[in-house]
Amino acid sequence: MTIASTLRLSLYGAAISATLGLIGCSNATDTAATDDSATADASKPAKTLAITQIVEHPSLDEMRRGIIDELADNGYVEGQNLTINFQSAQGNTATAGQIAKQFAGDNPDAIVAISTPSAQSIVASTKTVPVIYTAISDPVAAKLIDANAVPIQSNVTGLSSELPIEPQLDNIQKIAPNAKTIGYVYSPGEVNSVSVLNQLKKAAPARGLKILEVTANRPTDVAMATRSLSGRADIIYTSLDNNVVSAFEAMAGAANELDIPVIASDEFSVRRGATAALGVNDYDFGRTTGKMVYRVLSGEAVNTIKPEVMNTLTLYASPKHAAEQGVSLTDELLKNAINVDKEAKSAK
Q1: The pTM is what?
Q2: Which residues pair with 212 in a beta bridge?
Q3: Residue 254 — φ and ψ, nearest 5°?
């Protein structure tokens, strides 16, 4: 992928039982790795890695693939000297808690928790197994680290995807300069989404903007929540809310009907229907997380690995989706963005 532009911002710096399989978890064999030619480093002892995420959707799945590829490139290859036990909670927080307890009992060499609900469940279930969280928008609000970026438990570290709100608002106003009301569809049960809402409410008034919040407690609520913004919002902004991202095509379809542009926070939401997004590259985010996991599997104490924040943001845009949602993107904006429409065309 050729990145047209990146905006760099300085920010602070895993066998589950068959019983769980009956209540909604995905199977325990991970299929994210794609490099069949990778060869394990014979000098590295066999390791077991547990990976869990709250739900499967393209953004989180791409992060998981990045983690596994990074480990393979460093000599830990799944099926050779690395056993990976992956489980998805399929959007159910109670299932996430059961997965966490089982993983803690299995005592793998490390656990990777992808998404806030999964990370909170894992951290609550073990104080001894090394835990690497990732795809967390606000690790402080999630009570994974304190305000000084110190983990609340000595077995925890990870990578945050927290996105500063001001550049998001800048992006929104470039795309819809006449917008007065931003619709925000979110799940109140996700700490990261509530945190973003609070930031929006704090920053919006100074720009003459109003935030109109609408809740979607389940993925099946997303389309209805989006339609409720008809005649009330000029533009829709979405964070990395897992309910919303899981049902993003439904949101995009509703927004197309209403001619309301959707601005997202991740690459795949643009590929799935959003007008644009300013966020981290999901695969690169996974590779960076994988470097932290590799350090743990190689014997480094987890409490010596400081939590990090991904510090590179990329602008993604789709003129096609923008037109479907009633706006056009300027040449200036497209010059500084990855045009996913061109990528899709060249891939055919």
Answers
A1: 0.81
A2: 183
A3: -65, -40
